[in-house]
Every structure is written in C-alpha cells, then in structure tokens.
Amino acid sequence: MIVLCAGYLLATIFFLLIYCAIYRPLHSYPYPGELVDVIPAVLNVRLAELERWVSDEMSVLIAGTLSPREQRLARRRRRRVISDRLVPVEGNARLCLAFTRQQMRCLRSKPPGPRSERDRLLEDLFAHSQYCCLLLTFAKAIRLLPWDRERMIKFHRETVVREVREFLLVFLKFAATHGDYQRDNLLACLDCWELEEGLC
Fold it and tell me: Domain ranges in the chain?
C-alpha cells in the first residue's frame, strides 16, 4: 500500500513538473493582438552580447588572463549572464507563439488552396517559436544541473544561439510583410542589425 501511494505521489510530482516547466509556459501568454504589441517586449534582447558570452574567445580570455580563483568566479558569473541574456529571448519566443497560435487557427480554418508569402512565413514563425520555447526550456534546465561547463557552453554556442538567430530572422521577415518600418523598429529593439543580411 505504501509503495502504491509513493508511486502515485511520484507520478503526480512528475506530471506537475512537466506541466509547470513545459506546458504552462507555452500557453501562459494571452493573445497579444497585433505584431506591434510584441515589439515593446523585445527591447532587452541583445543577440550580439549573448554570442560574445558563449564564444570560444570568452573561454580563452577567462582561461588565459585570470587566476584560478578569478576563473571560478568568472565561470559562475558567465553562467548567470547567459541565463539573463536568454530571459528576454524566451519571453519574446513565447509572445510570438501566442501571437502566431491565434493566427494559425484562423489560417487552418480556411479551405485548402494556395498560400500567400505571409501565410508561409506565419507557419514558419509558429514552428520556430514553438521549437525555440522548448529548446530554451531545456537550456534553462541544463544550466541548473551539474553539467560539464564546457559542454553546456558548447551547446549554447552551437545549438541555442543558432536556433535563436533562425527564429529572430523569421520573425523579422514576417514583420517586413507588415511594412519596412515594422522591420526597422524590430531591428532597433532587438539590436541585431547583422541579421539584416539574411533578409535580402
């Protein structure tokens, strides 16, 4: 009887953890309305700064110029800074997911037929924002676990940053269908002018 109760308790805790860590964050934002309502939420996204903190150059700088004690402090600070830089990206991805989910419902209710460029970008943005949310949730989890620090940094550099760039690029392309001023506003807010090359 005790084993059965313990099993139920562990299963409940497990499903509660899945609900709180993955399902609820993906469905927590109300429909934000228009794309212009998403723009104020992206002001703190600094992609260039994130890329600098996860770069090999930062690893070399920490390893080559600091004493062992300073290295430990810098590594701890580095993990915290990466985490702080990804908070607005995650918020941005969730807002985009909430925005595109409602749009996708309307799109899927239409009869099948040829889709416009904006519709294709909307589908792409929905898929990227959904994947980005899940990836950032996983990245947050591994930053809390006692993972090998170099593997964690490599994962962020080679996977997280690449997917965030792809997500932001699709976001900017979709914004450009609403007008160039919308795209320019987002480029200024996101501080990721280097992504403009991918828009051409």
Answer: 31-107+117-199
